[in-house]
Design goal:
Layout lengths: L2 E4 L2 E4 L4 E7 L7 E8 L6 E6 L6 E3 L7 E6 L4 E6 L8 E9 L11 E2 L3 E6 L1
Parallel strand pairs: 2-11
Antiparallel strand pairs: 1-3, 3-8, 4-5, 4-9, 5-6, 7-8, 9-10, 9-11
Length: 122
């Protein structure tokens, strides 16, 4: 599966953005999906994940209550709705896919999009 993330940009602190990840392939619904991010000089970190049917989700503590992951298997897409953004949310955001249950470990993912930059100004 090929992934392409988009929707990043510059937003003020407290604002909102919606990231999208478009996937190719007819078996998209077989993949659990995740969002990860990497800030400058920091390691890649887990943000959110969703099961292949969208029935279960998981979030990093740092984004819980502010971010929402969702998917539309009919459109081969996964989304990350980000609200109440903070400067520390500034990072390149990546979507990823794996066969199997959702996971917060980036090493478990098989396919990655190219990333989209989110910058939150204070």
């Amino acid at each position: 599966v090929q992934l392409q993330a988009y929707g990043g940009g510059l937003v003020q602190s407290g604002g909102s953005l919606r990231l999208s990840c478009a996937a190719s392939g007819r078996t998209f619904s077989s993949y659990a999906m995740g969002w990860f991010r990497q800030a400058p000089r920091k390691e890649r970190e887990f943000v959110a994940s969703i099961s292949w049917l969208g029935g279960t989700t998981n979030y990093a503590d740092s984004v819980k209550g502010r971010f929402t992951i969702s998917r539309d298997n009919a459109k081969n897409a996964v989304y990350l709705e980000m609200n109440t953004l903070k400067p520390e949310d500034t990072a390149v955001y990546y979507c990823a896919a794996r066969i199997g249950p959702r996971s917060s470990n980036y090493a478990n993912y098989d396919y990655w999009g190219q990333g989209t930059l989110v910058t939150v100004s204070s």
